[in-house]
TrEMBL record:
Cofactor(s) the record lists: Ca(2+)
The gene coding this protein: LOC115955974
Record-annotated Pectate lyase domain positions: 123-318
Organism: Quercus lobata
Residues annotated as signal peptide: 1-21
Keywords linked to the UniProt accession: Calcium, Cell wall, Lyase, Metal-binding, Secreted, Signal
Keyword Isomerase set for record: no
SUPFAM superfamilies tied to this protein: Pectin lyase-like
InterPro entries listed in its UniProt record: AmbAllergen (IPR018082), Pec_lyase (IPR002022), Pectin_lyas_fold (IPR012334), Pectin_lyase_fold/virulence (IPR011050), PEL (IPR045032)
GO molecular function: metal ion binding; pectate lyase activity
Gene Ontology BP terms: pectin catabolic process
Enzyme Commission number: 4.2.2.2
Pfam families per UniProt: Pectate_lyase_4 (PF00544)
Name the record gives this protein: Pectate lyase
Amino acid sequence: MSAFFLFYLVLLLHATLPSSARTLMQISEATEWSSTRRQLGTGSCRTGNPIDDCWRCDPDWETNRKMLADCAVGFGRNAIGGRDGEFYVVKDSDNDDPDNPVPGTLRHAVVQEEPLWIIFDHDMVINLKEELIMSSYKTIDGRGFNIQISDGPCITIQNASNIIIHNIYVHDCIPAWKAMGQVAPQHSDEKSDGDGISIFGARDVWIDHCTLSNCYDGLIDAVYGSTSITISNSYMFDHNEVMLMGHNDDFLDDKNMQVTIAFNFFGAGLVQRMPRCRHGYFHIVNNFYAGWEMYAIGGSANPTINSQGNVFIANDDNSTKEVTKRENSESGEWQNWNWRSDEDVMLNGAYFTPSGQETAASYIRATSMVARPASHLINTPPSAGVLDCQIGIQCYIPKR
């Protein structure tokens, strides 16, 4: 590994280690966040990140938790989670019962029919017996405590909408047999894949400030016609197939998929799929990539990929300098796919192979927000991953 690469890792890893039915947008409608969104406070707490500047300068975050629901950007910006419901306090981390969920457990909270904003009353490591299948209009908000879901099946958002998952560390997830009645009619699999977060036939989903690592399958997968999704401010490390977007090459309902991947830190030990896309429209904006062992962004079945304002640092292996990889296609086919790199920064020999039309009009459906210059990511380390949130103090990324 070069000294150049190590310099950037030392600079940034302290900010990334884990701690305790949207209408299609036109480019002209993408929000100019710096001038139109609410931004709290001034000075050092402001970073220029539109999500964080919307709420993180507030020391009374605990009293104003639901402010978060107004802060999403990108294609998942309409996800309100449990904003319009009551608070549900999870008090029991030990008694996961998939057949008869116990009141006070996370499983009991997520299966309720009404909107709920789910919070916790102490540090928890939750080991689920079966995947956690969520119902619509739920927020899982881990701020204030070290909340981990690990060493078992993890989170599934199946045929649901309006979900927010915030400030949770998800790791070491494994497959498990599904409970009776949990298998969707169009989903023949009776066993979960072992994803950290599985999004299946869902819409209006926002995942923010989570840390994910070392799961059996994907860290975050979105398939089977899922759309209107934002994955933001999250830290991912030590994993092979990071994110899969799209069910398979023959599943044409994924042509309507729209996903924003913004302000994330793709850290050490990642191999591929950051993300791997099929059919749909993907806005990959203002992320930081600290190396990859195969490729960073890939796809098949003619997805539109709009990469803007990212920083890509290749590792020292000359065979892995390319950011992009086209799957299951010959060059004569993929040369017509709309993949572009717009003001990305390529370091240590990284390069992006563009294709398709060079006009802005070809990326209308793959534009969800206005990118900031990638230089901001070099000058200011990204505040990705779980936050340390103490009552009366602004939430921050703990130094390591």
